[in-house]
Amino acid sequence: MSQLLKFDIPGVLGSVTTRTWMLQRSYNWQLMMTSSINGIIGPLVSQYCQDVQFGDYSMVEMSKVRYGAFQRFYAGLQDVTSANLTFIVPIDNSVYDYFKEWRRLAIDDLGYYYPKNNYAKRIFVCLYDRTGIQSSQFSIIGAFPKALPKISASYAVENVLRYDVEISFDSVVNESLIGSIRDGITRVAGDILGKTVSSKIGL
Q: Of the CATH numbers 2.160.20, 3.30.70, 2.50.20, 2.30.110, which one belongs to the domain with range 26-56+82-200?
C-alpha cells in the first residue's frame, strides 16, 4: 500500500499538503538462486528463504599517507564480502542438500579447492512494488557458501527448523527498472528544457 506523508510548504500554499508516496516494503521481495546443482533445482530451494541481509559497506580503518612532516588521511576502501540467508527447512531437506552439493563444487573430498569459476554463482534479490511489478534487483556476483548450514535441534521448543547460511561474494550490483524509467524521463525533460531555453535566447 502507499504511504501518506504530510509536509508543509510555508509561503506557497499556506497549509499542510498531503502527498502520496510509493514506499518499498520489507516483505515484498524474493531470492532467486538460478543455478541448479547436481539435480537440485535452485529456484525451488529459493522459495524457502525467509530472510536476507547484505550490503553492510564499511570503512575498515582510516588510511594515512605521510608527506614530510605532515599526514594526510582518507577514509579507506568500502568493503562488503558476505551475506546472511535464513531458510526454513522442508521435509525433503533439499535446502541442506543444495548447499552441501554447492560446497562440493568448491572443495573435493581430499580437501583440494577447485578454480573459482567452478563454484562462484550469481544470485538475485528482487524487490517488488505493491502492484507486484519488479521495481529493482540486486545481483550478488561471485557468491558461494562459506560453510554448511549450522543445524540447531532442540526438544525445548517446537519451532520450524531453520538454517542460517553465510555466503561470500565479490560484489553487489543494483539494477532498478523504475529508476531507469525515472532517469530516462529526466534526461528527456532536461533535453526539451535545454532546447526551449536555447531557442528563447537565440542560441
A: 2.30.110
